[in-house]
Amino acid sequence: MQEGLDERRRGEFHGEGTVDNRIMGDEEFMEKIAGQGDELPVNISIDEVITAVCDRYKLAPAALALPGKTRALSHARGMAAWIIQDSTSVTLTELICWTGRDLSSLSAMAQRIRKRSVMEIALLSEKEEILNQITICKA
Fold it and tell me: What domains appear along the chain, each with residue ranges and CATH number?
């Protein structure tokens, strides 16, 4: 252990030089595990998520930042948070900037919708429609 004390900060242990800094490992390792999760296969932006969610629920993007807990707005925010949680290119922090909500609220909304989707298949269909709109725009 004493040997390691003389070393300086090593970038590879902090995600530097990798495509996804949330994963420790080389590029080969990341490619190997890339298809094993629910992550979206394409890079998306916060604007694309907001636009697609708002189009699906017929909302103005500014509506997501409105105060209050109306069911329609909460559902749209939760769906956006769920989609973002499955993405490697967008973070909930970016959604916080859009909505003015805190991280724990957005995470809880996403978790509630994710749990409900097990029993309510329509929620999975909604998510797939939104994702299709995003990926079709990228094609």
Answer: 2-34 (no CATH), 46-138 (1.10.1750.10)
